[in-house]
Amino acid sequence: MRLLVVEDEVDLLESLAQALREDGYAVDTADNGDDGYFKAKTWDYDAILLDWMLPRLNGIELLRRLRRDKKTPVLLLTAKDSVSDRVAGLDQGADDFLVKPFNLSELLARVRALIRRSTGNASNLIVIGSIEIDLASKTVMESGNAIELTAREYAMLELLAVHAGKLVSRTMIYNHIFDEQDDTLSNLVDVHISHLRKKLGRDLIETRRGQGYILNV
Amino acid sequence: MFSVLRSLRWRMQSWHALILLSVLVGFGCLLHWEMVRAHWDRIDDELLGAARILEGSMLAVPPAILEALAQDVSMSGPRMPRSNPNRPRWPEDRRPEDRRPEDRLPEERRPEDRNPPPIRSPQILPPRMVPYRNWNFPGADTQDLGDRTEEEWEASIQLPAQLPEQLGRNQGAAYFFIWRSDGSVLRESNSPAQPPTRNDEVFASLQRDRMARQERGPFREVFIRGPRETLICVGRSALREREKIAGMTGMMIASGLSVLGIGLIGGWWLSKRAIEPIQRMSRTAQGINANQLTDRIKLSGFDTELAGLGATLNTMLDRLSQAFEQQRQFTADASHELRTPVSIILTSSELALSKPREPEEYREQLVKCKRAAERMRQLTDSLLTLARLDSTTNLEMTHLDVEALLQDAVSSIQPFADSKSIEIHSHLEHASLQGNETLLRQAIGNLLSNAIKYSRREGQVFVRLLKSKDYATIEVEDHGIGIPESAISRLFDRFYRVDESRARAEGGTGLGLSIAERIVHCHRGQILVESVLGRGSTFRIALPLLS
C-alpha cells in the first residue's frame, strides 16, 4: 500500500513517514502544498495524509482541486479542532479527520480503516480458502499455522488479497508497493511472487502473461 | 409600580395627560365665563331697553301742553320753566363745565353767564315726544313739567300695567317698579315678584353711572334713574337662562371629557408608535451576544434619530466583533502553534518507543523532541510577555542611557551576525530617557535579529540613534530581502508571517514584531517600517524623551 504524507513541519513529516514505512507502507512525502498536489495528482495512492495549514497551497484548497479527478481517500491532519473546521474539512472531500496532537497508533488505525473502506472490505480479516490475512496485525495464517513473510512479501500479498479475483498489473504493484525512495529493479516482483508461492502454495497466485497476477478465490 | 414610573411610555403618557387636561380646563373655563357673561348681557340689554321705554313714556308730554308750548314760543319767546328749585338733586353727578350757569358755584361763574345766550326755538317734532333732554347726558334728573304740578304730571304718566311680552321674548314675564325719590312706589306692574328692597351696592353704582343691575333669587333686575328723581326697576325671571347655562356647562364638561379620552388614547397610540422601534431595536440587540455577533440592527424603516442610534450601535458591534474575531484568531493561532510541536514530540517519542532501536535512531528522535520543546519554550515566553504587556497599565520605568543600551544589544547579537558574516555599523548619538530597560532591550533585540535573519550572507546592518528635540529615534536598517507592500499593514499582527515556511525554517514564533510594537506603545512611542522588496527594510522606533 502506498501513501502520500503532506506536512510542512519537516520533523513531523520525517517521523510520520518513518512510522508508516515501519508499518509496511510505501510512503511518499511533500513539505508544501504545490508538491503535494503534484504528487497526489500524478500517482494513485491508497491514501493521503494531508495537513491543513500548508505553505503555498493550503490543504483544503489542495483537496478541493484533487477531488475534481481523484477519489483517493484523504485523512486530514490539523491543529484546527473546532466543529466548524471539521465540518468544512469533511465537506471539502476529506474522508477522515485527525486533530493534532495525535497518537501514532490511532493514526495508523485510521489509515488502515481508510484503506479498508476504500477497497470495500468491512473487516480487517481477509479469508481466502485456507488462508487468513489479518490486516491489523499484518499476520498471515494458513490452516491455523502462522506463516512468516517479509514486509515486501506481505505487502504484495495484501495488495493481491484486497483485489482478490481481479487482475493486478505489474505497474499497479510497482505503484503501490514501492515508494519514491525505492529504486528496486522490476524483476524483484517476480522474486517476491515466487517466494509467496513457495510459502502459500503454487495455485494461489496465477500468472497472466504480459498482464499481471490474480489471486484465485 | 416603580417600574411603571421608570417606563418612558408611561411617563410620556402622564405628561401628555397633564398638559391636555390643563389646556382643556383652561379653555373650558374661559369659554364658560364668556358664555355666562354673554347671557347676562343679553338679559340686561333687554331689561335696560324696557326701562328706557318706561322712562320715555314718563317723559311723554300730553298733546295739549305741546300746543300751548308752541304758542308761547311764537308770542313771547321761550320761558325757562323751573321746577321746584329746592328739590333735592344730585349735583355731584355733574362735572362743573357741564352744569348750567345757574347751577355753577359763585367762584365758577363766567362772564357770559350775566347775559345768557339766546335760547334757540324749539323744533316741532312728532307728537308725544319732546327732545327736551338728551337721555344720554349724565345727571339728567329734572323734567320740565310745563304748567303742570307734580301731581298732574304723575297722573299724566301712561304706562302699561304689564311690559309687552316681546320684551321678555317669552322667557318669563317681565315686571317693573317705579319709585319716587322718597321711596314710595309711583307705579308698578302686575309683578310675579315682591319689590326689591334697598341694596347698597345697587345704590352706590346708581350714584356713579345711572344704571345698576342685580340678581335677586331667580330674578335679574336693572335699575335706572328716571325723570324727576324717580327710580325705575325692570326685572324678569332668569330661570330658563340658568337652566340653559347649566345644560351647556354639562355639555362642555362631557365634551371636554371625551376630548380628553380621545387625546389620551391618541397619545397612548402615538407613544406606542414612538417606542415600538426602540423596542424592536432592543429585541435585536438582545439577540446579539458574544457567540452571535454577525447580526446587525436593520436601519431601514427607522426614523432619522433612531437610525442614528442604530448606526452607532452597529458601529459598536462592528468594533466588538472585530475585537472578538481578533481574539478568536489569536487563540486559534496560539493553539495551532502550540499543537504542532506537541505533535512532533508525541509522534517522535512514540516512534522511538515502538520497537528496540539503534542508539543513533533514538538520538535522532530525541533531537527532534528537543527542537520542538525549544520552540514551545520560545512560544510560551513570547505569549507570556505579550499577556503581561497587554495587562500592564504602567511599566516600571527607570532613567535609561539609550546609547549604552544599543551598544549592549549590538554586542550581544554580534555572534549571530558573525555566523552569517554580516557587518553591523553603529552610529549612536547620546540620548537618555525614562523607560523599562528589559523590555526596550527585547524590542531592539527583536528588530536586530530580524535584520540579520533576513539579510543575505556578508550583508550589512545599520543601527542609528538620533536625538531630536522631543524624540530619540532608533533606526535598524538592513539590505536584505525586504517586505512585500501587501504584507506591511499586517506586519505587526500576532502570528503573522510574511513567508510561512521560511519563518518556520528560521525558527520564528511570529510574535517578535508584535512584542516590539507593544513595548514601544507602552513607552508612548511609535514604530514605523519602510521597505522595498528585494532591497531591504528600515524599522524606526521613536521614543519621547519626556515621559
Could you describe the 3D structure shown?
The complex is a heterodimer of chains A (217) and B (547). By secondary structure, chain A is α/β, with parallel strands linked by helices. Chain A has 2 domains: 117 residues, Response regulator (Rossmann fold, 3-Layer(aba) Sandwich); 91 residues, Winged helix-like DNA-binding domain superfamily/Winged helix DNA-binding domain (Arc Repressor Mutant, subunit A, Orthogonal Bundle), CATH 1.10.10.10. In chain A, the strands form 3 sheets. A 5-stranded parallel beta sheet of chain A has the order 2-1-3-4-5, sandwiched between helices. Chain A has a 4-stranded antiparallel beta sheet with strand order 6-7-8-9, covered by helices on one side. A 3-stranded antiparallel beta sheet of chain A has the order 10-12-11. The radius of gyration of chain A is 18 Å and the shape is elongated. The mean pLDDT of chain A is 86. By secondary structure, chain B is α+β, with helices and mostly antiparallel strands. Chain B has 3 domains: 233 residues, no CATH class; 104 residues, Helix Hairpins (Orthogonal Bundle), CATH 1.10.287; 151 residues, Heat Shock Protein 90, CATH 3.30.565. Chain B has 14 helices and 12 strands. In chain B, strand 11 and strand 12 form a beta hairpin. In chain B, helix 2 packs antiparallel against helix 7, helix 8 packs antiparallel against helix 9 and helix 10 runs parallel beside helix 11. Chains A and B meet through helix 1 of A and helix 8, helix 9 and helix 13 of B.
